[in-house]
Amino acid sequence: SRPFAGRLSDRFGRPAVIIPGMLLLAVAMTILAFSTSQFGMLSAAILQGFGFGGVQPSLMAQVVDRSTDHDRGPALATLMGAFDVGVGLSSIGLGLVLEATSFSVTFLCAAGIGLCGAGASAWDALRPKTAPSTPSVAPEAD
Questions:
Q1: CB 49 within 8 A of CB 86
Q2: Residues 47, 27: contact at Cβ < 8 Å?
Q3: Angle ∠(10,17,97) on CA atoms, nearest 5
Q4: pLDDT digit of tens for each residue in the chain (142 aa)?
Q5: Alpha-carbon gap, residue 130 to 109, rounded angstroms
Q6: Domain range list for the chain
Q7: Contact indicator for 70, 18 with CB cutoff of 8 Å
Q8: Helices (DSSP H) in 35-140: which residue ranges?
Q9: Nearest in space to 5 (alpha carbons), one of 45, 62, 74, 83
C-alpha cells in the first residue's frame, strides 16, 4: 500500500491518508482483541499492513513538507527515531498491561493508541495555521 499512499497523500493531502491509516490500525487491533479464528487474525494483519503502509510514508512526506532543506535530514531522523522509541516503549508498556490483564485488553489498549494518533492528526489538520514566527532582532544601541 505504500506506493499508493504516497500518490494519494500528494493528491488529497497528508491527513486524508494518515487519519484513515491510523483508524485502520485501531480496527486491526480491535479485531485481534476479539478474534478466535485464523481468518480474524489474517484480516487484522492485512488491515494493519494497509494502515501502517499509509501512515508511514504520509508522515514522512508531511515532515518533508514542513521542513526546510537545511533541517530536512534531522527532521526525518527525528521521525524515524520516534518510531523506534514508540515501538520500544509500547512493547514495555503493553507487556505490563498484558501481565496485569489479558491479550484482549492489551490489543484494545493498542487500538486506543491508534485512535489517539487519528485524533492528533485530525486536530493538527483542523487547527488554524499560523505563519512561522521569525526571531526579532533588536536594533543595536549607539
A1: no
A2: yes
A3: 145
A4: 788 898 999 999 999 999 999 999 999 999 999 999 999 999 999 999 999 999 999 999 999 999 999 999 999 999 999 999 999 999 999 999 999 999 999 999 999 999 999 999 999 999 998 766 555 555 555 5
A5: 34
A6: 2-126
A7: no
A8: 38-66, 72-100, 103-126
A9: 62
Q: Which residue has the cell 488529497?
A: 12
Distance of CA 131 to the CA centre of its chain: 24
**Taking a C-beta distance cutoff of 8 angstroms, is the pair 20, 53 a contact?**
no
Distance, in Å, from the CA atom of 9 to the CA atom of 44, rounded to the nearest integer, reads: 23
Q: For the chain, where are the E strands, in sequence order?
A: none
Phi, psi of 101 (to 5 degrees): -130, -115
Residue 136 in grid coordinates: 526579532
Q: Which among 89, 82, 85, 26 is positioned nearest to 56, based on CA atoms?
A: 82
Residue whose C-alpha cell reads 486536530 in the numeric block: 123
CA atoms within 13 A on the CB side of 132: 5
